[in-house]
Amino acid sequence: MDGDVAVAGQYPRPSEAAPAAAVGVADVLAAQARLRRYLPATPVHHAERFGCWLKLENLQRTGSYKVRGALNALLAARERGDARTVIAASAGNHAQGLAWAAYRLGMQAITVMPRGAPETKVAGVAHWGATVRLHGDSYDEAKAFAIELAAQNDYRLLSAFDDPDVIAGQGTVGLELAALAPDVVLVPIGGGGLAAGVALALKSQGVRIVGAQVEGIDAMARALKGDTRELEPVASLADGVRVKAPGLLTRRLLAELLDDVVIVREAELRETLVRLALEEHVIAEGAGALALAAGRRVAGKRKCAVVSGGNLDAGVLATLLSEVRPRAPRRPRRRTREPVPALASQEPAIPTLPTRPRPPMASPPPNRAPRARHPDEEVFA
Asked: Name one GO molecular function term (predicted).
């Protein structure tokens, strides 16, 4: 399954009743206007040993790009006059983004997280005052419980990826990348919200959008090929993209806008995460290192990978650093310009005569008295 490639425009259309693609470039631009006063642009970094630029969303508020979509959704709801309590299911990053956004706007938020969610992410949600409900052993079980609570209590259910406001907010990552003028952008895919938003922002500029998924957690890649079976995702370091079924809205958008999908092995992901920490001094979670791991199989003169998050448990990082021994990077080739030989048809060069070296100037004798000047002699400085 490694290196599976899907070409835009050749995907089969979704067979199930997918919602209309009610999000476009104008919505991404509106999201950028809303978020500008709350979220500064994250930096880009050139990882020379990887030959790739990095969009450092691990330095975003709450340590992930997810805060963009959550905050845009709450701001857009406030503009529409919707003041209901918001509930969301998340493996961690969407929950943290929603908690921070609700805290900043003075709104109520409830997050449902699987019991195996990283402790760092659970603590981050509680820190911002949101209600945390732990339920189920996977994201999909937590999602089902959140849907049940929303129906019982008239909460607004905010999807982590299959929502127009969320997609538009994630698309602001692409708008910030436009100044870099990349020819290809690599994006991790779970439910597809980030990839759909970035594709909306950059596709009209001729940028190739390449998605990255982990072997055994490739629901979007299979769905785009027409395989809509819901298979149980395998255990992976990339818990942020571990979903059983991708979004319907994101699937429709990516069927039109996505260029390629690259499937990464778990061992490649672990090695990339360790290399990021040791060589580039960038701490990324599993899903955050996924796009860069896929970049080894993607050619581009100016490619950029989105480091989507950096909320990694210290114990997991310590284990990886002790167990993974990354291969030494190849030594860079020193490029030298060879002298151009003279062609036979060219006129011979005119020889130059050698110059004779000038003898050194004699130093004045020591203790010599200065010459006496005539009173009428002019002195020029």
From this structure: threonine deaminase activity
User: Catalytic pick from 55, 66, 121, 143?
Assistant: 66
Element (H, E) at 67: helix 66-80
Q: Are residues 94 and 119 in the same domain?
A: yes
Query: Domain boundary residue among 323, 348, 365?
Result: 323
Annotation says 308 is catalytic: yes
The reply to whether the predicted model has a pTM over 0.70 is yes
Is 114 found in the same domain as 248? no
Residue 66 is among the residues annotated as catalytic for this protein: yes
| Shared-domain flag, residues 242 and 258 | yes
Question: Residue 290 belongs to a domain with what CATH number?
Answer: 3.40.50.1100
Candidate list 64, 138, 159, 308, residue with the active-site label: 308
Please report which residue ranges of the chain form alpha helices under DSSP H: 25-35, 66-80, 93-105, 119-127, 139-153, 164-170, 172-177, 193-202, 219-224, 248-257, 266-279, 290-294, 314-323
Mean pLDDT split into 10-residue runs, the chain, 381 residues: 40 44 90 96 96 97 96 96 93 92 95 87 90 89 93 95 97 97 97 97 96 96 92 89 91 96 96 95 96 95 96 91 78 56 49 57 55 53 44
User: Same domain for 80 and 193?
Assistant: no
